[in-house]
Specification:
Strand content: 35-45%
Structural class: alpha+beta
Strand order of the largest sheet: 1-2-3-4-5-6-7
Shape: globular
Helix content: 10-25%
Order of helices and strands: HHHHEEEEEEE
Amino acid sequence: MKRVAAMVAVAGVSFLRLAVAEALPIDGEAESRLTAERLAAYAEPGAPARYRELITRIKASPAELGAPAKNLRLPVRSWPDGRAQTVVFAKEAWISSDMQQVRGRGVRVEQFHEDGSPEAVLEAAEVMVDRKSLLAVAKGRVAGTFGTDHFSGIGALVDLDARYVQVLRRAKIVTQRMREANFAGRGLF
């Protein structure tokens, strides 16, 4: 019962954030930077509705998609100087006719700093990536690294723009960032 109440409370907050975002007065130059949709996306980067199309497309049988490309390397976005910022690698890949959506098996997504050094890596058994919205859905085994932090699990929702990853099942996280935390002093234990 407590779990259901917590989910409802979270859903209520999400709706409230979206309602506030839609009510914001947006004018002039600010319109290009802050929109209700963009604010809502950052408030709830893991909202399933944002990933609905990708989830539907990744459920389709690969046989319906035709012959895959082999050993794909596809830049998703670049830094202003032309260096790759995000690159998708796939052992097998199917690309939409407009080149905006990529479905792949044996996928590795690499994120780079502006100087070209590696920032993060996400690996998955199967992924559907939308280059326009910078969203991705992964099914099967997923694993990732960000600096010294590592995670793994089954399935994921990814927002490349917000740098957000939600592992859907059996999540395991290993991090060194909590060294300074004192849980005993906060009355948790």
